[in-house]
Amino acid sequence: MKTLLIALNIAALLAAPAAAFAQQSLISDPEIYEKKHFQEQCTKAEFSDGFIIRQDINNDGLIDAVVNEGELTCDGEKGPQCNDDGCTYNFYLQVAEGGYFMIATAQIYGYDFVKRFGNMVLAMKMHPRFCDRPDADKGKEPCIVTARVRGTKFVTISKK
Hints:
Layout: H1 2-15, H2 18-23, H3 30-41, E1 45-47, E2 52-55, E3 64-68, E4 72-74, E5 77-78, E6 87-94, E7 100-108, E8 110-116, E9 119-126, E10 143-150, E11 153-159
Antiparallel strand pairs: 1-4, 2-3, 3-6, 4-5, 6-7, 8-9, 9-10, 10-11
């Protein structure tokens, strides 16, 4: 049941993230925002260098941010929210007016940022069932979901 809920959340967030922007307030810096959240949740929170990656994920020339919760150690437990589906990644876009907003959250193993047909895209490594391989296990090849961030939406290009 928990797995189904996670899958539905990922599908909903990848399909309709723009609606969330309409109701979100801008935050000044996702790193400060996320670290403060975990410092309130954990007695002792430690963050490795890979906790936040800053790069332009939507090809607009502004530096965006991707938070990898797997790079958090909370009360001695590394990546406490990680499971067989991977770890939680939060994707933030920077806006020209200043500030950031979250466009998506995904439970993934990781991602590569690659150039396809002249555009930079995210190739997210996910559990095989996200590519219609429900009987696959974690020992099999991960599913690769390639998505482009167009405006404020994740647009899925391919799944394999």
